[in-house]
Amino acid sequence: MTPKRLLAAAVAVALAAAGCGGSDDAADGNTLKLWHFEGPDSAMGVAWAEAIKQFEATHPGVKVRFEEKGFEQIQKTAPMVLNSSDAPDILEYNKGNATAGLLAKQGLLTDLGDEVAERGWDKQLGPGIDTTARYDERGVMGSGKWYGVPNYAEYVMVYYNKDMFAQRGIQVPTTLDELTAAMDEFVAAGITPLATAGQEYPAHQILYQLALTKADRDWVDRYQRYTGEVDFHDEAWTFGAETFADWVGKGYLSKDSAGLKAEDMGLAFMQGEHPIMISGSWWYGRVRANVKDFQWGTFPWPGMTSGSSGNIWVVPKGAKNKELAYDFIAITMSQPIQDKLREAGGVPVAPGGTPASDPAMQEVTDTFKALSEGDRLAYYPDWPAPGYYDVHVSAVQKLITGSAGPHEVLDELAGPYRENLESIGG
């Protein structure tokens, strides 16, 4: 701990001992107000709970006032709350132009560049991981100031029910054609193969996954980082939308999934109702903890995949206890906490040299490393523009219900994207 941090901790202890908390402990420096939206049984929830214990143990007299928020709740209310006296000292926030980039552009976040350099956080992160932490004056990721620090890693994979696959003699797919053939066999047996949810992120991530099978880095950067023109009716987008609609028509996913949330999807897979779930590594720890009645596993999506650093810690511009916030970030980046996250089923953003106790978890960690080093992480479809998450959800719901065709849906995606491009100066 540097001298200025020792001083901050000492002041906090003195205030607590003197009973100077007053009506607003946070303003007096003896409370760290923390928001995050990780469930207590998720890998990140387990790791952050341990980080809170370590923080309080190393900061005598300072307490963490943790407030659990929903992902959707933070996404929709952050701009308003962070511009008020109710802002936390530190919060977990979604990364990308539409979220962290927007807050940075609005002047609501603290530039963490000096802390990143002083504490060496940039050196702990793997290739390309800092893309989601840095934003330029337009709020576009990949360059500019450090407005966040990634706290874990993530990518979209395919979860599968080994028992259901084995009952029908289906081998683990390694290509999209093999995955499609597997789903055909389940449909022929009267089983809806794919657990998904159209009311939140899962379904539109699948459409993007399909588009990525025809994409490359240049395509991703043009779409995500505005490095060139984007044609929403090109080969990749057309393949994604048309194939998704085809999957609906063939019964690979239920039309009822248009009204389901991510939680519904996860529970359906964990209860053995569907043999396949295409979603993120953030589910891994929870699936491992809860599935007891069948054998399950994962395999990589063929080609590029949605993924990046995980969500990021951000410090509001008006935070009352920034030094404490920086100390908390440092603890979450420490090897014991990163290892705790991995052992609970998460993907560490700063892995150490000791292998995981669970070989399957080590495989997930190694897969992320290979994706990162192979330049195969393609971020997420709703990142480019503010409000784009709701646009994607609504558009893909229409594909599921059949109320719009593939190219109508692509037009729906194109409009807000182009409006945002114009608003940031092209």
UniProtKB/TrEMBL annotation:
One Pfam family cited in the UniProt record for this chain: SBP_bac_1
Q: Which UniProt keywords apply?
A: Signal
Transmembrane helix among the record's keywords? no
Keyword Signal attributed = yes
**By its UniProt entry, which InterPro entries does this protein fall under?**
Bact_solute-bd_prot1, SBP
Signal sequence bounds = 1-26
Name listed for the protein in its UniProt record: Sugar ABC transporter substrate-binding protein
Name the species this protein comes from.
Answer: Saccharothrix coeruleofusca
